[in-house]
Every structure is written in structure tokens, then in C-alpha cells.
Design brief:
By secondary structure, the chain is of the alpha+beta class. The two termini are 24 Å apart. The protein is globular and about 35 Å long. It has helices at 53-61, 68-77, and strands spanning 3-12, 15-24, 35-41, 48-51, 65-66. The longest helix is centred in the last third of the chain and has 10 residues, at 68-77. The chain has a 5-stranded mixed beta sheet. Strand 3 and strand 4 form a beta hairpin. The chain has 2 helices and 5 strands, in the order ββββαβα.
Length: 83
């Protein structure tokens, strides 16, 4: 099973809010997921990023591939620096 770490859109129309989730690569964007790793709220200034770093590192060690937007979030949050 190919596993991806990606964003799942939540929130109301014009008020996006995202959950960072681990999901099968074939599942739809807002479909089934395996685990929740944190949240991303782009509306405040600066955007709010909350991640469970231990869970993120665990899933990366298991071979989960982050999507491009999630890679940028991890870099901004400082998760990928010490690997």
C-alpha cells in the first residue's frame, strides 16, 4: 500500500482549514485516512501549523511520502531539518 502524508480540507466555504493526514495514495482527498498528524490554518497571520512531530517522524520512517505542500509545511515547522 502506497501511503502519502497530505492535506485534508475542512472548514466552511471561503474559510479553509486543513488536517495533515496519512492516507492511501489512491484514496480521494477528503476520503478515508489512516492517521491524523496535525492541523494547518492558513488564515491567521502567520499561518498556524500544529504537528505531532513524533507521529510525523514515525510515519516518515515507515516510508510514507509527503505531498509537495506538506513538504513545505514540514520545512516551515522545522520537522525535516534534523533528518
Amino acid at each position: 500500500m502506497a501511503v502519502r502524508i497530505r492535506l485534508r480540507r475542512m472548514g466552511a466555504k471561503k474559510r479553509p482549514f486543513y488536517r495533515v493526514v496519512v492516507a492511501d495514495a489512491r484514496a480521494p482527498r477528503d476520503g478515508r485516512f489512516v492517521d491524523t498528524l496535525g492541523t494547518y490554518d492558513p488564515l491567521p497571520d502567520p499561518p498556524a501549523i500544529r504537528l505531532d512531530v513524533d507521529k510525523v517522524r514515525l510515519w516518515l520512517a515507515r516510508g510514507a511520502q509527503p505531498s509537495e505542500p506538506v513538504k513545505r509545511l514540514f520545512a516551515r515547522a522545522g520537522v525535516l531539518q534534523d533528518q
